[in-house]
Amino acid sequence: MANSSLGQSTATTRPEPSALVPSIQWGKWLLVFFVFAYLALVLLVPALNVFVQALKGGLPGLFETLVSDHFLNAVKLTILATAISVPLNTVFGLCAAIAIAHKNFPGRSLLISIIDLPFSISPVVAGLMIMLLFGTRGWFGPLLDATGIKVVFALPAIVMATIFVTMPFIAREVLPALEENGTEQEEAAATLGASSWQTFWRVTLPSIKWSLLYGLILCNARAMGEFGAVAVVSGNIAGKTQTLPLFIEEAHIQYNTQAAYTAALLLACLAIVTLVLKYLLELNAGITNKSH
Amino acid sequence: MTSIYTSGPPPEGIWHRIRTASWPWRITWLYLTLFLFLPIAALILKAVTLDPREIWQIATDPVALSTYNVTFVTALVAGLVNGVAGLIIAWVLVRYEFPAKRLLDAAIDLPFALPTAVAGLTLSTIYSTNGWLGQFLDPFGIKVSFTRLGVLVAMIFISLPFVVRTVQPVLQDMEVEMEEAAWSMGASRWQTFWRVILPPLMPAILTGIAMGFSRAVGEYGSVVIIAGNIPFQDLIAPVLVIQRLEQFDYAGATVIGTVLLIISLLVLLVINLIQARGRHMHG
């Protein structure tokens, strides 16, 4: 009950207990001050620092990194891996949600837990699993060697790692929306002679579009920023199999602070866009906030 | 032969089910099999083919034991710190009105949106001995970056939103009348907090702590950047997995990875038990 009725904290205003008991007014401001101080130390100052450090070298400093080959390759690879894994996870998430939403079968909640499983598994362990499957000494290693197909230390493994860690995002947003909508509209469409494909495009999809978008935004942010799982399987070859987060780590290790922070700035902008879109969706489309 | 004598349900073997399953079902199972079950099976089957004595030896190797200590103890401390701080943040966001409240509420999710590499990078700069915040700690001999304290800071960062987001909705639904009743009957502020406010929030707080702990245990990106990754000091288990893999020690990586997987599954079980209990308590 508690989880499903999650609203935004800001949506309803309650009478403040402090208004009834004036003596704890100072307690309120003490707590508010604590919250600001804590969030400043842990979140806000670190976020601000990304911008300050990246812009410290001025525009020339930024441009030097922005036009470097390794950086551009990292951007390209990150976008490519995301552009493959997010649509695949979208198809999966929609299928899973449609398959589960209006059915009651034994093991239903177990299946939902299984879909959520990647959120509990360490990304590094996920990467290890892919190595054990496709690495040189993995299950399919000899087969891949014989056929000359490169999976690990190449794009396929990076995509698989990204798919693994972002698998639940779409399904877990779309499923509650479908459950809430019920089946009347779909049944009506079917009665009027719509094919199941038409029903999906014209009835189901429009009814869940905001939830789907919400899931997509979160899935995209995680896919672009994934580090652990990709670090294991990519081989981290600069200019070839290095994604943006890996580029940041290497630049940092080599004391190339400007390059590290330029890439970090790009990803921080992605995070801010993500938060703004997420906030707008919560505000306007009535989507509830969940922790992942 | 038996089918003639038994009038049971029609033959519903697994093949029949697959043939009659809808397309969404087929795609769901195919996808789960390829991208989830197969990788998990690879890890488990690799682990069971190892000699049990070898597994024990690798799992209880001094370096491995020290990484469990750093990973699990630090993640637990981070979870507890955020348990207290998260409760206060949720309380302030639900009960009080103040400037920039909405902005603050939205900023809570930053750790979900900001890539961990960026978090590790900026935290390590800020908390280095000449960084914005680290310079104030240095005179007291407190070093954060490249120490276990740095691991803690990174883990606090990434597990921050969980308790806030689990407690917020419960607090929202809570009747203020109960507190007022306690007040008017002469309960002190502390009594009201401990006896009236805290008990119904407990399942949500514990769930949030467990989720944050689980996330912190598996975290790699931010920790590897802020820590020095030195064995017996601030080396975490996920980094050890990667180090073993880089040495082509698949057995070593598998055993440590399996330990991490088992802990994750146990925490998941605990979360489900807490939530089941919470539902039971509230009818």
The end-to-end span of chain A amounts to 18 Å
Overall pLDDT confidence of chain B: 90
Summed up, the domain count of chain A is: 2
What is the count of helical runs of chain A? 14
Give me the strand/helix succession of chain A.
Answer: HHHHHHHHHHHHHH
CATH class of the largest domain in chain A: Mainly Alpha
* Spans of at least 5 consecutive residues with low confidence of chain B: 1-8
Strand content of chain A: under 5%
The mean pLDDT of chain A is: 89
**What's the count of strands of chain B?**
0
> Which CATH architecture of chain B?
Orthogonal Bundle
In one word, what is the shape of chain A?
globular
Q: How would a textbook summarize the main sheet of chain B? A: none
Largest sheet of chain A: none
Order of helices and strands of chain B: HHHHHHHHHHHHHHH
Quaternary structure type: heterodimer
CATH topology of the largest domain in chain A: MetI-like fold
Structure description:
- The complex is a heterodimer of chains A (292) and B (283).
- In chain A, helix 6 (123-134) packs parallel to helix 12.
- Chain A has helices at 17-20, 25-55, 58-66, 69-101, 108-116, 123-134, 141-147, 155-166, 168-181, 184-191, 196-225, 228-234, 244-253, 257-284.
- Chain A is mostly helical and 292 residues long.
- Chain A is built from 14 helices and no strands.
- Chain B has helices at residues 2-5, 14-20, 23-48, 52-59, 62-95, 101-107, 110-113, 116-126, 134-137, 148-173, 176-184, 189-218, 221-226, 237-246, 250-281.
- Chain B is globular, with a radius of gyration of 24 Å.
- Chain B has 283 residues and is mostly helical.
- In chain B, helix 5 (62-95) packs parallel to helix 10 and helix 10 (148-173) packs across helix 12.
- The chains are: A mainly alpha (292), B mainly alpha (283).
- Chains A and B meet through helix 1, helix 2, helix 4, helix 5 and helix 6 of A and helix 3, helix 5, helix 6, helix 7 and helix 8 of B.
